[in-house]
Amino acid sequence: MPSGTLVIIGGSENKGDEPKEHVPEENFTPLEVLQYFVDTIHKENPQVEVVTTAGSEPDTAFREYKKLFKKLGVSTVGHIHHDNRREVLADQALEERVKSADALFISGGDQLKLTSLYGGTTFLTRLKERYINHRFVIGGTSAGAMALSTPMIYAGSKDVEQTAGEIKVTTGLEFLKDVCIDTHFTHRGRFVRMAQVVVTNPTCIGMGVEEDTAVVVRNGREAEVIGTGTVIIIEGFHIADSNIFDFSEKQSISIRDLKVQILSRGNQYKIPQCNPLHL
């Protein structure tokens, strides 16, 4: 069981602005999700490292999160950004920064940049060791959240999601195994593309997180929802039939007997462990 905590954010978390039109005022707390991330660290004057590698405007993203985290009581905020894998391999300070940090926050952008740059590196190994052995908090928003799981969606827009076999999936950073995370879920209508991931291997749980909403995972399995939106869980254990094998014929996807749960603030969910623990 990991000693650390994951804070998986569906993107567009509130940054002190007014609530969106569809959110009732009584269901809204400014900065709720980011405040929860900071509170989860359970330490005065924590050190947080912000990873902006996925984004196209890293300096802008870092300045925004640094300002927000300082507003929430985090005085030491570091910036990690890499443009290519060579930079990662040559960055001798990374391991010490991971060792010194109390939490790490991954901003949005392109999740494939995160896996292709950090997969197989000592940086990722040390990060996992911190998460497994210490009360280390890892937060991710949008692409930064999607990269935390395996499998990981990296392509497949609403224009193709209804066609069998058109969703592209790879191995994520594997902080959660047999779980696929998708973000901006209801807002961008991503249910069908997640269902395609689940039907290709029903051992996998689909976890769709809406904007300004987060799933907090403790002990690697115990999940709780916070924020203003919903989380949709898709389970495929009881799938009776599908046409996923016919992807070469460009047919619309057909799946029978998916199980769906819709969760909101305060609801809990225990992530199933279908595979016995093994290396």
Topology, element by element:
Elements: E1 5-9, H1 32-40, E2 47-51, H2 58-71, E3 76-80, H3 85-90, H4 94-100, E4 103-106, H5 111-118, H6 122-133, E5 137-141, H7 143-146, E6 149-150, E7 152-155, E8 168-170, E9 176-177, E10 179-183, H8 191-200, E11 205-209, E12 213-218, E13 222-227, E14 231-235, E15 241-242, E16 255-256, E17 259-263, E18 268-270
User: What is the straight-line distance between the termini?
Assistant: 14 Å
Could you tell me the CATH topology label: Rossmann fold
How many structurally independent domains? 1
Q: What structural class do helix, strand and pairing data support? A: alpha/beta
**For the report, how would you describe the main beta sheet?**
8 strands, mixed
Strand content: 25-35%
Report the average pLDDT across residues.
95
Question: CATH homologous superfamily name?
Answer: Class I glutamine amidotransferase (GATase) domain
Query: What multimeric state do the chains show?
Result: single chain
- Please report the number of helical segments: 8
CATH-defined architecture: 3-Layer(aba) Sandwich
Spatial strand sequence of the major β-sheet: 3-2-4-5-1-12-13-18
The beta-strand count equals 18
Radius of gyration: 18 Å
The first-level CATH class name: Alpha Beta
Residue share in helix: 25-40%
String of helices and strands: EHEHEHHEHHEHEEEEEHEEEEEEEE
Report on this structure.
This protein has one domain (5-270): Class I glutamine amidotransferase (GATase) domain (Rossmann fold, 3-Layer(aba) Sandwich), CATH 3.40.50.880. The chain is built from 8 helices and 18 strands. It has helices at 32-40, 58-71, 85-90, 94-100, 111-118, 122-133, 143-146, 191-200; strands at 5-9, 47-51, 76-80, 103-106, 137-141, 149-150, 152-155, 168-170, 176-177, 179-183, 205-209, 213-218, 222-227, 231-235, 241-242, 255-256, 259-263, 268-270. The chain has an 8-stranded mixed sheet with strand order 3-2-4-5-1-12-13-18, sandwiched between helices. The mean pLDDT is 95.
